[in-house]
Write a structure and sequence with these properties.
Blueprint (H helix, E strand, L loop, with lengths): L6 E2 L10 H9 L11 H14 L3 E5 L2 H12 L5 E5 L3 H5 L3 H6 L2 E5 L8 H6 L12 E7 L12 H14 L2 E5 L3 H8 L3 H5 L4 E5 L10 E5 L1 H13 L8 H13 L4 H16 L4 E2 L9 E6 L4 H10 L2 E2 L1 E3 L3 E5 L6 H15 L1
Helix pairs in contact: 1-11, 2-11, 3-10, 12-14
Bound molecules: pyridoxal-5'-phosphate (PLP).
The site of pyridoxal-5'-phosphate (PLP) has 11 residues, from helix 3.
Length: 345
Protein backbone atom coordinates (compact mmCIF):
# COMPACT_ATOMS: atom_id res chain seq x y z
CA UNK A 1 0.00 0.00 0.00
CA UNK A 2 2.98 2.30 0.64
CA UNK A 3 2.49 6.01 1.10
CA UNK A 4 2.55 8.44 -1.83
CA UNK A 5 4.43 5.92 -3.97
CA UNK A 6 7.11 5.27 -1.34
CA UNK A 7 7.48 1.86 0.30
CA UNK A 8 9.20 2.66 3.54
CA UNK A 9 10.83 -0.35 5.21
CA UNK A 10 13.31 1.73 7.27
CA UNK A 11 11.46 1.43 10.57
CA UNK A 12 8.07 0.94 12.20
CA UNK A 13 8.44 4.51 13.51
CA UNK A 14 7.40 5.78 10.05
CA UNK A 15 3.81 4.58 10.50
CA UNK A 16 1.18 7.26 10.01
CA UNK A 17 -1.65 7.55 12.55
CA UNK A 18 -4.85 5.75 11.56
CA UNK A 19 -8.09 7.57 10.73
CA UNK A 20 -9.43 6.52 14.11
CA UNK A 21 -6.40 8.03 15.83
CA UNK A 22 -6.80 11.31 13.95
CA UNK A 23 -10.47 11.46 14.95
CA UNK A 24 -9.63 10.64 18.58
CA UNK A 25 -6.95 13.36 18.57
CA UNK A 26 -9.39 15.92 17.15
CA UNK A 27 -12.00 15.08 19.72
CA UNK A 28 -9.69 14.58 22.70
CA UNK A 29 -10.74 16.10 25.97
CA UNK A 30 -7.65 17.92 27.26
CA UNK A 31 -6.32 19.72 30.31
CA UNK A 32 -2.86 20.72 31.47
CA UNK A 33 -0.72 17.65 32.02
CA UNK A 34 1.96 19.62 33.89
CA UNK A 35 -0.79 20.33 36.42
CA UNK A 36 -1.80 16.65 36.02
CA UNK A 37 -5.37 17.38 35.00
CA UNK A 38 -5.39 16.27 31.36
CA UNK A 39 -8.05 13.51 31.50
CA UNK A 40 -6.91 11.82 28.28
CA UNK A 41 -3.28 11.54 29.44
CA UNK A 42 -4.46 10.16 32.77
CA UNK A 43 -6.66 7.64 30.94
CA UNK A 44 -3.76 6.48 28.75
CA UNK A 45 -1.51 6.13 31.79
CA UNK A 46 -4.14 4.08 33.61
CA UNK A 47 -4.60 1.86 30.57
CA UNK A 48 -0.83 1.39 30.15
CA UNK A 49 -0.39 0.46 33.81
CA UNK A 50 -3.27 -2.01 33.54
CA UNK A 51 -1.97 -3.64 30.32
CA UNK A 52 1.53 -4.01 31.77
CA UNK A 53 0.29 -5.13 35.18
CA UNK A 54 1.99 -2.30 37.07
CA UNK A 55 0.72 0.21 39.64
CA UNK A 56 1.28 3.35 37.59
CA UNK A 57 2.51 4.81 34.32
CA UNK A 58 3.86 8.09 32.98
CA UNK A 59 3.40 9.41 29.44
CA UNK A 60 6.65 10.76 27.96
CA UNK A 61 7.52 12.22 24.55
CA UNK A 62 9.93 9.48 23.43
CA UNK A 63 11.37 6.08 24.21
CA UNK A 64 14.76 7.61 24.84
CA UNK A 65 13.30 9.92 27.44
CA UNK A 66 11.39 7.06 29.07
CA UNK A 67 14.56 4.99 29.40
CA UNK A 68 16.56 7.98 30.62
CA UNK A 69 13.99 8.86 33.28
CA UNK A 70 13.76 5.25 34.48
CA UNK A 71 17.51 5.00 34.89
CA UNK A 72 17.83 8.45 36.46
CA UNK A 73 15.36 7.31 39.11
CA UNK A 74 16.59 3.73 39.55
CA UNK A 75 20.37 3.97 39.03
CA UNK A 76 21.44 7.44 40.06
CA UNK A 77 24.74 9.22 39.91
CA UNK A 78 27.96 7.41 40.71
CA UNK A 79 26.53 3.91 40.37
CA UNK A 80 26.82 1.21 37.72
CA UNK A 81 24.23 -0.42 35.46
CA UNK A 82 24.67 -3.67 33.52
CA UNK A 83 23.53 -3.41 29.90
CA UNK A 84 23.55 -5.73 26.93
CA UNK A 85 26.36 -4.58 24.63
CA UNK A 86 24.21 -4.06 21.52
CA UNK A 87 21.34 -2.44 23.40
CA UNK A 88 19.62 0.70 22.18
CA UNK A 89 20.30 2.43 25.50
CA UNK A 90 24.04 1.81 25.31
CA UNK A 91 24.49 2.48 21.59
CA UNK A 92 21.79 4.77 20.30
CA UNK A 93 20.66 7.13 23.04
CA UNK A 94 23.47 9.67 22.75
CA UNK A 95 25.22 8.57 25.92
CA UNK A 96 22.25 9.26 28.21
CA UNK A 97 23.52 6.92 30.95
CA UNK A 98 26.80 8.78 31.34
CA UNK A 99 25.60 12.26 30.42
CA UNK A 100 22.28 12.52 32.22
CA UNK A 101 22.10 9.64 34.69
CA UNK A 102 25.75 10.15 35.69
CA UNK A 103 26.27 6.40 35.98
CA UNK A 104 28.71 3.88 34.53
CA UNK A 105 27.15 1.68 31.84
CA UNK A 106 28.78 -1.76 31.76
CA UNK A 107 28.11 -3.45 28.39
CA UNK A 108 27.89 -7.26 28.48
CA UNK A 109 27.95 -9.83 25.67
CA UNK A 110 24.85 -11.83 24.87
CA UNK A 111 23.32 -14.43 22.64
CA UNK A 112 20.82 -12.37 20.63
CA UNK A 113 20.00 -10.16 23.62
CA UNK A 114 20.07 -12.88 26.26
CA UNK A 115 22.92 -12.19 28.69
CA UNK A 116 23.68 -15.44 30.57
CA UNK A 117 22.93 -15.21 34.30
CA UNK A 118 26.51 -16.16 35.16
CA UNK A 119 27.78 -13.21 33.07
CA UNK A 120 25.44 -10.88 34.96
CA UNK A 121 26.58 -12.39 38.26
CA UNK A 122 30.30 -12.08 37.44
CA UNK A 123 29.91 -8.40 36.68
CA UNK A 124 28.20 -7.25 39.84
CA UNK A 125 30.33 -5.00 42.00
CA UNK A 126 29.50 -4.35 45.63
CA UNK A 127 30.10 -0.94 47.14
CA UNK A 128 33.18 -2.20 48.98
CA UNK A 129 35.84 -1.09 46.47
CA UNK A 130 36.81 2.52 46.22
CA UNK A 131 37.77 2.13 42.55
CA UNK A 132 34.51 0.65 41.25
CA UNK A 133 31.02 2.12 41.33
CA UNK A 134 28.47 -0.21 42.93
CA UNK A 135 26.16 -2.10 40.55
CA UNK A 136 22.58 -1.18 41.34
CA UNK A 137 20.65 -2.09 38.18
CA UNK A 138 20.47 -4.08 34.97
CA UNK A 139 18.60 -3.46 31.75
CA UNK A 140 17.43 -5.79 28.98
CA UNK A 141 15.80 -5.01 25.63
CA UNK A 142 12.66 -6.86 24.47
CA UNK A 143 12.27 -7.22 21.55
CA UNK A 144 15.89 -6.54 20.67
CA UNK A 145 16.34 -4.11 17.82
CA UNK A 146 19.97 -4.84 16.86
CA UNK A 147 19.37 -8.58 17.09
CA UNK A 148 16.61 -8.40 14.49
CA UNK A 149 13.60 -8.14 16.78
CA UNK A 150 14.66 -11.11 18.91
CA UNK A 151 12.23 -12.05 21.68
CA UNK A 152 13.56 -12.72 25.18
CA UNK A 153 12.16 -16.00 26.53
CA UNK A 154 9.67 -15.65 29.41
CA UNK A 155 11.57 -18.31 31.41
CA UNK A 156 14.78 -16.29 31.05
CA UNK A 157 13.00 -13.10 32.14
CA UNK A 158 11.63 -14.94 35.15
CA UNK A 159 15.15 -16.06 36.10
CA UNK A 160 16.51 -12.54 35.67
CA UNK A 161 13.65 -11.17 37.76
CA UNK A 162 14.42 -13.62 40.56
CA UNK A 163 18.14 -12.95 40.27
CA UNK A 164 17.71 -9.17 40.38
CA UNK A 165 15.57 -9.42 43.52
CA UNK A 166 18.10 -11.73 45.18
CA UNK A 167 20.95 -9.37 44.34
CA UNK A 168 19.00 -6.23 45.22
CA UNK A 169 19.27 -4.86 41.66
CA UNK A 170 16.67 -2.79 39.82
CA UNK A 171 15.60 -4.59 36.62
CA UNK A 172 14.64 -2.19 33.83
CA UNK A 173 13.22 -3.41 30.54
CA UNK A 174 13.55 -1.38 27.36
CA UNK A 175 10.30 -2.74 25.98
CA UNK A 176 10.00 -0.27 23.11
CA UNK A 177 8.46 -3.22 21.21
CA UNK A 178 7.22 -5.33 24.13
CA UNK A 179 3.86 -5.82 22.40
CA UNK A 180 5.64 -7.41 19.43
CA UNK A 181 7.24 -9.83 21.89
CA UNK A 182 3.91 -10.55 23.57
CA UNK A 183 2.09 -11.14 20.27
CA UNK A 184 4.89 -13.38 18.98
CA UNK A 185 4.70 -15.47 22.15
CA UNK A 186 0.91 -15.37 22.32
CA UNK A 187 0.91 -14.12 25.93
CA UNK A 188 -0.14 -10.83 27.56
CA UNK A 189 2.55 -8.13 27.71
CA UNK A 190 1.93 -7.96 31.45
CA UNK A 191 3.38 -11.43 31.84
CA UNK A 192 6.68 -10.25 30.33
CA UNK A 193 6.65 -7.02 32.33
CA UNK A 194 5.92 -8.78 35.61
CA UNK A 195 9.57 -9.74 36.11
CA UNK A 196 10.94 -6.18 35.72
CA UNK A 197 10.69 -3.26 38.14
CA UNK A 198 10.26 -0.74 35.32
CA UNK A 199 9.34 -1.04 31.66
CA UNK A 200 9.41 1.56 28.93
CA UNK A 201 7.31 0.90 25.84
CA UNK A 202 6.51 3.00 22.76
CA UNK A 203 3.11 3.64 21.21
CA UNK A 204 4.87 5.41 18.33
CA UNK A 205 6.44 2.34 16.69
CA UNK A 206 4.47 -0.63 15.35
CA UNK A 207 1.41 0.51 17.30
CA UNK A 208 1.35 3.51 14.94
CA UNK A 209 0.62 6.46 17.23
CA UNK A 210 2.39 9.63 16.06
CA UNK A 211 4.23 10.41 19.31
CA UNK A 212 4.85 8.96 22.73
CA UNK A 213 6.04 6.29 25.10
CA UNK A 214 5.11 5.13 28.56
CA UNK A 215 7.18 4.33 31.58
CA UNK A 216 5.48 1.87 33.92
CA UNK A 217 6.40 0.71 37.40
CA UNK A 218 5.29 1.05 41.00
CA UNK A 219 3.71 4.23 42.33
CA UNK A 220 6.89 5.41 44.02
CA UNK A 221 8.97 5.06 40.83
CA UNK A 222 6.38 6.94 38.79
CA UNK A 223 6.13 9.73 41.42
CA UNK A 224 9.88 10.21 41.22
CA UNK A 225 9.79 9.91 37.42
CA UNK A 226 7.35 12.81 37.28
CA UNK A 227 10.00 15.12 38.75
CA UNK A 228 12.70 13.89 36.37
CA UNK A 229 10.38 14.28 33.37
CA UNK A 230 9.85 17.89 34.43
CA UNK A 231 13.51 18.78 34.69
CA UNK A 232 14.26 17.10 31.34
CA UNK A 233 11.59 19.27 29.74
CA UNK A 234 9.33 16.34 28.92
CA UNK A 235 6.22 17.59 30.72
CA UNK A 236 3.73 18.78 28.11
CA UNK A 237 0.55 20.80 28.47
CA UNK A 238 -2.50 19.70 26.37
CA UNK A 239 -0.79 16.39 25.76
CA UNK A 240 -4.15 14.63 25.63
CA UNK A 241 -4.13 15.35 21.88
CA UNK A 242 -1.21 12.92 21.63
CA UNK A 243 -2.39 10.54 24.35
CA UNK A 244 -5.70 10.06 22.50
CA UNK A 245 -3.82 8.35 19.66
CA UNK A 246 -1.94 6.28 22.25
CA UNK A 247 -5.23 4.97 23.61
CA UNK A 248 -6.26 3.82 20.13
CA UNK A 249 -2.79 2.28 19.71
CA UNK A 250 -3.17 0.22 22.88
CA UNK A 251 -6.77 -0.83 22.33
CA UNK A 252 -6.90 -1.40 18.56
CA UNK A 253 -3.41 -1.92 17.18
CA UNK A 254 -1.84 -4.69 19.25
CA UNK A 255 -3.33 -7.85 17.69
CA UNK A 256 -2.57 -6.75 14.14
CA UNK A 257 1.20 -6.87 14.90
CA UNK A 258 0.92 -10.58 14.03
CA UNK A 259 0.41 -9.54 10.38
CA UNK A 260 3.72 -7.65 10.43
CA UNK A 261 5.45 -10.70 11.87
CA UNK A 262 4.03 -12.97 9.14
CA UNK A 263 5.17 -10.51 6.43
CA UNK A 264 8.62 -10.25 8.00
CA UNK A 265 8.93 -14.05 7.78
CA UNK A 266 7.77 -13.98 4.16
CA UNK A 267 10.37 -11.31 3.34
CA UNK A 268 13.11 -13.24 5.16
CA UNK A 269 12.25 -16.49 3.37
CA UNK A 270 12.30 -14.76 -0.01
CA UNK A 271 15.63 -13.10 0.74
CA UNK A 272 17.19 -16.33 1.99
CA UNK A 273 16.70 -17.87 -1.46
CA UNK A 274 18.70 -15.11 -3.17
CA UNK A 275 22.31 -15.28 -4.17
CA UNK A 276 24.46 -12.68 -2.38
CA UNK A 277 22.19 -12.38 0.65
CA UNK A 278 22.79 -14.02 4.01
CA UNK A 279 19.91 -14.44 6.41
CA UNK A 280 18.53 -17.18 8.63
CA UNK A 281 14.74 -16.86 8.39
CA UNK A 282 14.41 -18.86 11.61
CA UNK A 283 15.89 -15.86 13.45
CA UNK A 284 13.07 -13.58 12.31
CA UNK A 285 10.66 -13.76 15.22
CA UNK A 286 8.85 -10.43 14.97
CA UNK A 287 8.75 -7.48 12.54
CA UNK A 288 12.46 -6.72 11.99
CA UNK A 289 14.47 -8.33 9.18
CA UNK A 290 18.25 -7.89 9.13
CA UNK A 291 20.40 -9.44 6.44
CA UNK A 292 24.01 -9.36 5.28
CA UNK A 293 25.08 -8.47 1.74
CA UNK A 294 27.86 -10.63 0.36
CA UNK A 295 28.39 -9.06 -3.06
CA UNK A 296 27.19 -5.47 -2.94
CA UNK A 297 28.12 -2.44 -0.85
CA UNK A 298 25.33 -1.31 1.46
CA UNK A 299 25.12 2.29 0.09
CA UNK A 300 24.86 0.96 -3.49
CA UNK A 301 22.16 -1.51 -2.47
CA UNK A 302 20.15 1.20 -0.69
CA UNK A 303 20.51 3.63 -3.58
CA UNK A 304 19.35 1.05 -6.14
CA UNK A 305 16.42 0.12 -3.96
CA UNK A 306 15.47 3.77 -3.56
CA UNK A 307 15.23 4.12 -7.34
CA UNK A 308 12.37 1.58 -7.10
CA UNK A 309 10.67 3.71 -4.43
CA UNK A 310 11.70 1.32 -1.67
CA UNK A 311 13.50 2.56 1.45
CA UNK A 312 15.60 0.41 3.79
CA UNK A 313 18.24 1.20 6.41
CA UNK A 314 21.96 0.40 6.44
CA UNK A 315 22.87 -1.42 9.63
CA UNK A 316 26.63 -1.36 10.03
CA UNK A 317 29.10 -1.99 7.18
CA UNK A 318 27.49 -4.97 5.49
CA UNK A 319 24.01 -5.32 6.91
CA UNK A 320 20.61 -3.94 5.92
CA UNK A 321 17.48 -3.62 8.06
CA UNK A 322 13.93 -3.82 6.75
CA UNK A 323 11.02 -3.42 9.15
CA UNK A 324 7.38 -4.43 8.61
CA UNK A 325 4.53 -2.29 9.85
CA UNK A 326 0.92 -1.40 9.20
CA UNK A 327 1.66 0.80 6.16
CA UNK A 328 3.16 -2.13 4.23
CA UNK A 329 1.08 -5.01 2.91
CA UNK A 330 1.69 -8.36 1.18
CA UNK A 331 1.97 -6.75 -2.23
CA UNK A 332 4.66 -4.37 -0.94
CA UNK A 333 6.68 -7.30 0.37
CA UNK A 334 6.38 -9.01 -3.03
CA UNK A 335 7.37 -5.79 -4.78
CA UNK A 336 10.46 -5.46 -2.54
CA UNK A 337 11.41 -9.10 -3.13
CA UNK A 338 11.10 -8.68 -6.91
CA UNK A 339 13.21 -5.50 -6.85
CA UNK A 340 15.93 -7.04 -4.67
CA UNK A 341 16.01 -10.21 -6.75
CA UNK A 342 16.55 -8.13 -9.91
CA UNK A 343 19.33 -6.19 -8.19
CA UNK A 344 21.13 -9.30 -6.97
CA UNK A 345 21.02 -11.22 -10.25
C1 LIG B 1 14.71 -0.77 21.38
C2 LIG B 1 14.52 0.71 21.36
N1 LIG B 1 14.52 1.37 22.51
C3 LIG B 1 14.32 2.70 22.56
C4 LIG B 1 14.12 3.42 21.41
C5 LIG B 1 13.96 4.92 21.51
O1 LIG B 1 12.73 5.40 21.12
P1 LIG B 1 12.57 6.90 20.58
O2 LIG B 1 13.03 6.91 19.18
O3 LIG B 1 11.10 7.17 20.75
O4 LIG B 1 13.39 7.78 21.47
C6 LIG B 1 14.11 2.78 20.18
C7 LIG B 1 13.90 3.54 18.92
O5 LIG B 1 14.01 3.07 17.83
C8 LIG B 1 14.32 1.38 20.15
O6 LIG B 1 14.34 0.69 18.99
Amino acid sequence: MGYRGIFDFRSDTVTRPTEEMRRAMYQAEVGDDVLRDDPTVLRLEELAAEKLGKEAALFVPSGTMGNTIALKVAVGEGNEILLEEKSHIYNFESGNVSRIVGALPRPLPSKRGTVPLEVLRENIHGGDRLHIPPTVALSLENTHNYWGGAVLKPTYLEEVGKFSREMGLHFHMDGARIFNAAVALGIPAGELASHAHSVMFCVSKGLSAPVGSLLVGNRELVERALRVRKFLGGAMRQAGILAAAGIVALTKMVDRLAEDHARARKLALGLSAMDGIEIDPAEVETNIVIFRLRKMEVPVFLENLKKEGILALGFGKSRVRMVLHKDLDDRDVEKALRAISRMMS
